[in-house]
């Protein structure tokens, strides 16, 4: 067990992620419930979900699984993603936050959420607006702690400043992506979280499946849902080259690449918990089999040589991209101004 930042809450080093429970992965609700119970039986007490997973189906599965066992679990969910047609059915406005939490509470069959997280940065909403609404939820007893996901370091700092100056509840956790192939958060995000006493639960420590060894160089590319979802990520030659070197390292050390990847993610002193996302019971059992692995300095030094600290070989297809990198009008003066100059 590890402390979740300065919340005083104890959580397991593995957090059970549920994104693929339901129509997005495993549509068998009973099988998903059995997997949740298996994880709890193995000592995992931390479960992460989101309202947008399966467009509410996943939260319903989690709620069903936790019937009679709610107090055993530190339950985290997220809001912000689009939850229906039309405007104002997503985002981080007060209007949506107070509506979204009621939906999650109902689906999860609980009267409180341990950790309520902003799923993505929302450049259209003042962070004070969101923090004010979340503070009210904490004071009402519907939420125990609040956190964020995918926030750049600068926005984490801004949120902390706003909370301090306005007397609002602080973001207590951050949920970024982190793996052997995507180490960018080591540069600024993790040190920022450390300075502000924030817990960190990292998603995709297996790099969307690349670190399972199922996707290799010079092999046929499977036509599956994952390949259609993140095609650039799974076919990036630089990542595939690194995977081959990491596979060799794992084999020489007598470990599977999956176990090596999970042990790497949980070995960082600023990482509280790594989110696992099994789709089947066999995948869950394999992940649980690697929980006792501890990597020596020699292996970690070799990993640093393959993928240097603070380096993203290339961003994930689903990583957050700031508007300034998407919208040309935010990085180019209007033509008439340039012509006049």
Can you walk me through this structure?
This protein is an alpha/beta fold. The protein has helices at residues 29-41, 57-65, 94-108, 127-139, 153-166, 189-195, 225-229, 231-235, 237-253, 257-267, 281-289, 297-306, 323-326, 335-340, and strands at residues 2-3, 10-11, 14-17, 46-48, 74-79, 113-118, 143-149, 171-175, 199-202, 273-276. It is globular, with a radius of gyration of 20 Å. The protein starts with a strand and ends with a helix.
Strand content: 5-15%
Average pLDDT level: 95
Give the N-to-C terminal Cα separation.
61 Å
> Spans of 5+ residues with little confidence (pLDDT < 50)?
none
Series of H and E elements: EEEHEHEHEHEHEHEHHHHEHHHH
Query: Which structural class do you get from the secondary structure elements?
Result: alpha/beta
Highlighted features:
40% helix; eight-stranded parallel barrel; globular; two-stranded antiparallel ribbon; 341 residues; alpha/beta
What is the secondary structure topology, with strand pairs?
Blueprint lengths: L1 E2 L6 E2 L2 E4 L11 H13 L4 E3 L8 H9 L8 E6 L14 H15 L4 E6 L8 H13 L3 E7 L3 H14 L4 E5 L13 H7 L3 E4 L22 H5 L1 H5 L1 H17 L3 H11 L5 E4 L4 H9 L7 H10 L16 H4 L8 H6 L1
Parallel strand pairs: 3-4, 3-10, 4-5, 5-6, 6-7, 7-8, 8-9, 9-10
Antiparallel strand pairs: 1-2
Helix pairs in contact: 1-2, 2-3, 9-12
